[in-house]
Amino acid sequence: MRVKGFTMTAYELCQRHVVTVRRHEELTTAAWIMRERNVGCLVVVEAAGAIGGERPIGLLTDRDIVTTVIARNLDPHSVLVADVMRRHPVTVWANASIEDTLQRMRGSGARRVPVVDDRGRLVGIIAVDDIFEHLAQRQAPPPTPLRREARTKMGSDPI
User: pLDDT (tens digit, 9 = 90+) per residue, 4-59?
Assistant: First the structure.
């Protein structure tokens, strides 16, 4: 997004405190984390190896839990995050513009995407709601029409 001569990036707008979980965790643990941290989505991560940090390998939403486990009457204690998570999440580079980020989200139907650095390590998460809120704050307020009384005082005929 062009704002007064510079491009806002995904990293500048993303939430940097990402709530994560590992694929080998029980689903009940993931649900507990969601409740305790008041989030509807966890990024499933694994160690990024020698470079350090973590890389996203999946996403798990509260909706995934409901549609995959609860609706099928499965025992959540016998299900792992890996059994339910959406693998290979769409990600965006930290230096991606907001326009590119929104276009990538739209193209994949994703409402939330992990933001990664140039080595693929997780640095944040961005939601379509974050982008819309940002755009709404940047919009100029709509013009206010003159009220009938003001026009009448100025000599105009009332409408």
Answer: 434 789 999 999 999 999 999 999 999 999 999 999 999 999 998 888 899 999 99
In order of start, what are the domains of the chain with their CATH numbers? Answer: 2-153 (3.10.580.10)
How far apart, in whole angstroms, are the C-alpha atoms of residue 153 and residue 39? 54
pTM here? 0.80
**pLDDT tops 70 at residue 141:** no
Amino acid at 124: G
SS (H, E, C) the chain: CEECCEECEHHHHCECCCCEEECCCEHHHHHHHHHHHCCCEEEEEEECHHHCCEEEEEEEEHHHHHHHHHCCCCCHHHCEHHHHCEECCCCEECCCEHHHHHHHHHHHCCCEEEEECCCCCEEEEEEHHHHHHHHHHHCCCCCCCCCHHHHHHCCCCCC
Please say if the pLDDT value at position 154 is more than 70: no
